[in-house]
Specification:
- Helix content is 34%, strand content 15%.
- By secondary structure, it is an alpha/beta fold.
- The strands form two sheets. It has a five-stranded mixed β-sheet with strand order 5-6-9-8-7. It has a four-stranded mixed β-sheet with strand order 1-2-3-4, sandwiched between helices.
């Protein structure tokens, strides 16, 4: 379709400045697409800072806000031009509808609408109803998931079988300070690395969970657990995943609205023997 893209790592954004911003427009870039927190390692990107630099060069900024949700983060208020969501995740919240959302100024959304008119991708009525129903409880669900995810992340961080926990609500997280500035809550998704860093270890851990469902989705009322190596990043080679900072033994944990004490006990039981 004539679209060219260039992927860049923003891991060192806070320490070394943005590697893609100098001369971004001279490279022919007209759009900067960001995701924060990222999937699955919950990296945090300074939306306000990057938006300011991009706008100075006439570049449109789009932010994928799926993991944060509008309850925790509002990219448009931080300077982004368009915010997008996989409505399949937290907005719907019940793992029963597929859809997407784009929000922004009329002159930009009109372009999206015109493209959709020509190429299709129209949401079916039942999915539209299910997403509207889900959003009625979005605030309640996300606040519960925020609280539970932080409790679970704190538990995992202190567990001897866990090497590292990725959750922006933890003070040990590299992006914690920026997350505190631009987020009201830290979300329901976390990931953690077992000390026994292998797919075999992940394959032994996940079936031991009784309350978490093994699936590729996230953001539902049920707790969902997955191995990025065999789900979201299965098409990458182990070497490519390593370059992205996704270890083979990483586990993504999307916290549901179940009782948090039950979830912690479930994780603790599954970790026995590691």
């Amino acid at each position: 379709m004539g679209v060219r893209f260039e992927s860049e790592s923003l891991s060192d954004l806070n320490r070394n400045g943005c590697p893609i911003c100098p001369g971004i427009r001279t490279k022919g870039c007209t759009l900067l697409y960001l995701e924060t927190p990222t999937n699955p390692t919950t990296k945090i990107i300074d939306i306000a800072r990057l938006s300011k630099v991009a706008h100075a060069q006439g570049v449109v900024v789009v932010v994928d806000n799926t993991a944060a949700t509008p309850i925790n983060q509002n990219p448009l208020q931080l300077g982004a031009d368009v915010v997008v969501h996989s409505a399949t995740k937290f907005l719907g919240g019940h793992a029963d509808a597929l859809g997407g959302v784009a929000c922004g100024p009329k002159h930009l959304i009109d372009q999206v609408h015109h493209y959709r008119e020509i190429h299709g991708a129209v949401l079916d009525p039942m999915s539209a109803y299910l997403l509207l129903r889900g959003m009625k409880t979005l605030d309640l669900r996300v606040k519960r998931q925020n609280e539970s995810a932080l409790r679970i992340a704190q538990f995992l961080e202190s567990h001897p079988a866990v090497e590292r926990v990725f959750y922006p609500g933890l003070e040990s997280h590299a992006g914690h300070a920026i997350a505190r500035q631009q987020m009201r809550g830290f979300g329901g998704v976390l990931s953690f690395l077992l000390k026994e860093n292998s797919l075999d270890a992940v394959g032994r851990f996940i079936p031991r969970l009784r309350f978490a469902h093994a699936a590729g989705n996230l953001g539902a009322v049920e707790t969902i657990v997955a191995s990025p190596a065999t789900s979201s990043h299965v098409e990458c080679t182990p070497e490519e995943r390593a370059r992205l900072g996704i270890p083979e033994g990483l586990i993504r944990y999307s916290t549901g609205i179940e009782d948090v004490e039950d979830l912690i006990e479930d994780v603790a039981s599954a970790l026995k023997g590691f």
